[in-house]
Design a protein that fits this description.
The complex is a heterodimer. By secondary structure, chain A is of the alpha+beta class. Chain A has 2 domains: 75 residues, no CATH class; 59 residues, no CATH class. Helices cover 58% and strands 12% of the residues of chain A. In chain A, strand 3 and strand 4 form a beta hairpin. In chain A, helix 1 crosses helix 2. The longest helix of chain A has 32 residues. The radius of gyration of chain A is 23 Å and the shape is elongated. The C terminus of chain A is likely disordered. By secondary structure, chain B is mainly alpha-helical. Chain B folds into 3 domains: 63 residues, no CATH class; 33 residues; 35 residues, no CATH class. The N and C termini of chain B lie far apart (58 Å). The model of chain B has no long low-confidence stretch (mean pLDDT 82). The chains are: A alpha+beta, B mainly alpha. At the A-B interface, helix 1 and helix 2 of A face helix 1, helix 3 and helix 5 of B.
Chain lengths: 171, 135
């Protein structure tokens, strides 16, 4: 056993039971791969938003309106959007194709969580779900997805936890 | 819209440099299989931060220990030039701050033990053992 692994490998593993046949291991922290996946998603979102802002500025200049108004127009539906598409159709469509979907990004993280921490009950034995696929994630019921979302939040909070004060220590 | 733009720019700038973290661990001399490239992504971030901080502290203390001879010489030169009024400690010539709590004891524990040594009759053998740890 390695010098540091006893910190978490030797201690009894804790799990989030999603149902009687599916569970995720808790490390009280996100894993490095999960964290960089989420950061990559955040970057993608930020790049997309900056592109939308750039286009809103261009539209504001051409139409002689406020930048904020142009930004709202890009997000609006109905007639306003139809008018916008007539003038800036190619650019709007080009940017909107890049729009990251919240649902897809969440599913990507769920798949990663199952590959890294998931276990399934096969017969009487818990087996790793390291071969978990996007398709498996898409078939998960909403209740389990909600539980996973909560689990992700809990793992993040625990990861930022500081050393607790010992209440019995003399002050 | 401007606030949103700033937030997005910050998100792009602020993201963790994982290559730097990995390189730092290698540079600090960690060779445990737990941190090998092929499974680096599976290390809990909280643990990674803790290991990195501890290794950094150890490295700094090693550098400090290696610099003691030079620091002593510097103290000597300073005293020779500054005369009797010269008050300089060895720590001021060390590259890194000396670890404040190397014993691993909490401040509250140290103060409680000091109080006990002052106000209660502790066996001299016990005082002899714990005294240097508390000073």
């Amino acid at each position: 056993m390695s010098k540091y692994s006893e910190f978490f490998l030797l201690s009894s593993a804790k799990y989030c039971e999603l149902n009687e046949k599916l569970r995720l291991r808790s490390y009280k922290s996100w894993l490095a791969e999960e964290m960089w996946c989420r950061e990559a998603q955040g970057k993608k979102k930020a790049k997309f938003t900056l592109e939308v802002i750039r286009l809103a500025r261009k539209i504001a200049k051409v139409k002689g309106i406020e930048e904020d108004e142009a930004f709202q127009l890009l997000q609006a539906g109905g007639e306003d959007r139809e008018d916008l598409l007539k003038e800036f159709g190619d650019e709007v469509n080009g940017i909107m194709d890049l729009a990251p979907s919240n649902r897809e990004q969440f599913e990507e993280l769920v798949t990663l969580f199952f590959r890294n921490r998931g276990e399934v009950m096969e017969g009487k034995k818990w087996t790793s779900t390291s071969d978990w696929s996007d398709e498996d994630t898409q078939k998960l019921p909403a209740t389990i997805l909600t539980a996973i979302e909560q689990f992700m939040a809990d793992e993040e909070v625990n990861g930022e936890e500081t050393v607790e004060e010992d209440e019995d220590a003399p002050k | 819209m401007q606030g949103l733009e700033q937030n997005c720019e910050q998100t792009l700038e602020r993201s963790t440099d994982w290559t730097e973290i990995y390189t730092q661990l290698i540079h600090l001399g960690i060779s445990d299989p737990l941190f090998h490239a092929e499974r680096f992504g599976l290390v809990p971030v909280k643990f990674l931060k803790s290991v990195s901080e501890n290794l950094m502290k150890q490295k700094q203390q090693t550098i400090n220990a290696d610099s003691v001879a030079v620091a002593k010489l510097a103290c000597l030169v300073h005293s020779a030039l500054g005369g009797k009024r010269s008050t300089v400690s060895l720590e001021s010539f060390l590259p890194f701050e000396k670890a404040k709590d190397t014993s691993g004891l909490k401040e509250s524990t140290i103060s409680a033990m000091k109080w006990a040594m002052k106000n209660e009759k502790l066996p001299p053998a016990v005082v002899g053992i714990i005294g240097p740890e508390l000073s």
